[in-house]
Amino acid sequence: MAPEMIVVERHGAVGLIRLNRPKALNALCDAMMAELAEALRDFDRDPEVGAVVLTGSERAFAAGADIREMQDRRFPDTALADFIAPWEAVLTVRKPVIAAVAGFALGGGCELAMMCDTIVAAETAKFGQPEINLGIIPGAGGSQRLARAVGKAVAMDMILTGRNMDAAEALRAGLVSRVVPAERLLEEALAMGAKIAELSPAAVAMAKAAVNAAFETTLREGVRLERTMFLSLFGTAGQREGMAAFVEKRPARFPDA
Ligand code: HXC
């Protein structure tokens, strides 16, 4: 069935997913998250796609989980049917996923962006974890990923007061990798995706896994994992082509696997 709450496009070797509930500022409801999970899985399986860009609208990447849908939820039903579990589809994608954020990325919207591998922000972007104003706390990893991204003091400030951070502060704090004018946001994110999609898929997948390991394991374990992956890349066609191209002073043409 065609998705109704997201728009899925291909731009060359880059998959693009737009969250598309503009009237509700892309509030993340169950149906939208199920569609997003399926689109991500499809792109992950497609050998012609090398990277994925996830974006929203000009006004909002996403203003959070859908408060109307959550309003009548009660414990223990929330625990028995964990409605956040499908969100984690983003974390299972082996290809790089770039969040392109304009406008509000609040609550679950900020958490969804942080589940991606990197965030490119428009100058209009506003990040925040305002759940405290609703009598709840972040529930899709926000307390953990924001603290790792910007440090304890800033994460506490944002999560305890619910205040937003603008794009300039997000760049200074290390939450986003680049800030660009709003009209260039998609172009910049797609160009980043296209650059990645030209490279050796095995090296890209391992680079992503290695950096992500830095947030999930000890330094010693992470370095061990990196070493194993580094050494195994010497068994790939990508390594042969990359190094041959350098020595022969020509551009590399990486194989698909
Ligand atoms: C449902 C939402 C929504 C949300 C906005 N809308 N955010 N609906 N859930 N999270 C709807 C509004 O109800 C309104 O619908 C329409 O979008 C436009 O929003 P306005 O408030 O009229 O716009 P504006 O005055 O510009 O204010 C923008 C805003 C505000 C500052 C982003 O909408 C806001 O504070 N939204 C809630 C942000 C939030 O608390 N997010 C965290 C949610 S909890 P109508 O029909 O009235 O036009 C969360 C937990 C995640 O995310 C945990 C993991 C699952």
UniProtKB/TrEMBL annotation:
Keyword Transport: no
Any single Pfam family the record assigns to this protein: ECH_1
GO terms assigned for molecular function: enoyl-CoA hydratase activity
EC numbers on record: 4.2.1.17
CDD domains named in the record: crotonase-like (cd06558)
Cited Gene3D superfamilies: 2-enoyl-CoA Hydratase, Chain A, domain 1, Lyase 2-enoyl-coa Hydratase, Chain A, domain 2
UniProt keyword terms in alphabetical order: Lyase
EC category: lyase
Coiled coil residues, start to end: none
NCBIfam families documented for this protein: PRK05862.1
Family of this protein: Belongs to the enoyl-CoA hydratase/isomerase family.
PANTHER family: ENOYL-COA HYDRATASE, MITOCHONDRIAL, ENOYL-COA HYDRATASE-RELATED
Name used for this protein in its record: Enoyl-CoA hydratase
